[in-house]
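Standup notes
- DV: blocked on the single-chain target, sequence here:
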Amino acid sequence: MGNDQHRSQTTLRVNGTPHTLTVDHRRVLLDLLREDLDLTGAKKGCDHGQCGACTVLVDGRRVNSCLLFAVTLEGCEVITAEGLGGDGEEPHPLQRAFLERDAFQCGYCTPGQLCSAAGMLAEAAAGHPSHVTDPAAPSGAAVPLDRAEIRERLSGNLCRCGAYPRIAEAVEDVIP
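- DV (later): unblocked, structure below
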């Protein structure tokens, strides 16, 4: 049997395209994206799920791809920063706002920040509260996003350059 007992065929949709790969059970999603699919937007920062540089969306939820074993994602839809704009013809509104607000400096954290912001917008719209959400807010109703909500919800994504004010402004620009 050899190493075959430690590998499984896995199919996932990445940025709208199905990919079937034989994957080592220990391979994390981040390595699969970067090394097998050549999608290098998500970055390997801390490799411990603490910095957010590897954030992508899995079935619409933001995740740290450095912590997820790829074989556990059979049938899932994965969106990376490269796929945020859909067909790639036009940038996602968040990508455009990040450019207009100069919400990045070195750009290393930017793909993770973008995916986290996209996930955060969906979470707030779906009524998921955060630590700073007013406890009197109606349960299940969309959570209004003010600066405190944005900062709390993006607090898992670190930026060594300190572009946080511009990132928050860019997110404010796209709030419906």
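- Follow-up: The two ends are 54 Å apart (CA to CA).
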